[in-house]
Amino acid sequence: MSLPKTQRTIEAIWRIESPKLIAKLTGMVRDVGLAEDLAQDALVVALEKWPHAGIPDNPGAWLMTTAKRRAIDLLRRTKIRDQKYVEIAKNADLYTEEDIDHVLDGEIGDDLLRLIFMTCHPVLSQDARVALTLRLLCGLTTEEIARSFLVAESTIAQRIVRAKRTLKEKEIPFEVPLGEELHVRLSTVLEVIYLMFNEGYSATSGEHWIRPLLCQEALRLGRVLAEIAPNEPEVHGLVALMEIQFSRFKTRVNSKGEPILLMDQNRAQWDQLLIRRGLAALERSRKSGRSLGPYSLQAAISACHAQALTPEDTDWPRIAALYEALSIVMPSPIVELNRAVAISMAFGPDIGIQIVDVLNADPSLKKYHLLPSVRGDLLVKLGRYDEARAEFERAASLTQNERERSLLLNRAMECEKGKST
User: Fold this and answer.
1) Is residue 386 assigned to a domain?
2) pTM of this structure
3) d(CA 194, CA 171)
4) What span, in angstroms and rounded, lies between the C-alpha atoms of 372 and 389?
5) pLDDT of 125-156, one tens digit each?
6) Of the residues 104, 121, 138, which one is the last residue of a structural domain?
7) Where is the RNA polymerase sigma factor 70 region 4 type domain (predicted)?
8) Distance (Å, rounded) from C-alpha 42 to C-alpha 44?
9) Is 388:379 a contact under the CB 8 Å cutoff?
10) Which terminus of the chain faces fewer neighbouring Cβ atoms within 10 Å, N or C?
């Protein structure tokens, strides 16, 4: 195995395993910043050893063992909380290669949920909570998070540093809260879990468009949360949204890993079990008697797609109406962009592009690659191929995902064919 290929493999393993490492280490040292440092130490050891010794059969267990040994060594060396160290050393056996099933079981998952609630504590600002959790649970870089927030990278970096310092200074507990405190933190936790799911569903950067394990973990955490907070309609709304979205997962890429757009997917291969589960969760949300929140509304939009046997059967007027409702409860330029797409599908591209042209002047969308991508698609439908090609090329220059860039460049080249026909 060549060194560059080994390094790429290690990076992929790290993206998958780092949230579990950080969650488990936070439970041990009760300091999320220190836990991240210890996890990074384990990565450094892997980068030193694996290119020469080979990648272990169970790399997650290897990383966990290395990180836990370093954590226990640190606790012993600095004599921090001697009683806690004795308890940890007595009760927490080190993981071995044979213990991989235990490393990946629900215990780790519970730690992940506790980590989410810890980093979503109200002592932090809303933006800081989301940024920190995306950094720790999704393994996103500050640049990737900044693109998601549509703000400067330095702003995100400062938020993350301050957030970790605040959690340490305030000694925020590593636990899932109960009662009213759980309710207070719930909206941010839901936001973080969905952002985690979205990063798996459409990766911000890298060689792959999708990250299945990240989606699966977000969905699992959502289901656990639905058990903890069964009377919260938006919890069921989020679960419904993720279930239905994930039902399309296998059809989102072809055998080469290239993206397949929604309207081109083979609907016969959509997972009907996940769709049924999603529709049932949406119904539980509706039965609360409250107005639909943002996740339930998005789930209702996804349900429209899931229930259409063919792209032509899609109820676009209803989707446009749902986006209108969503823009009221969760106003944002990205929601407005999606509403423009729905309106164009329901009533024609000439109407949709009027909305998009207004959004073109929004400074927060200046580096958002989907804006020129949507505009390019509408221009193709209007027969304005030269303009469309320029928009697709601009979108390709803005995305950090290699698969998506190739897709957009291919669409730009297709504009030449369209112009000649």
Assistant:
1) yes
2) 0.73
3) 27
4) 10
5) 888 888 888 888 777 788 878 876 778 889 99
6) 104
7) 115-167
8) 5
9) yes
10) C
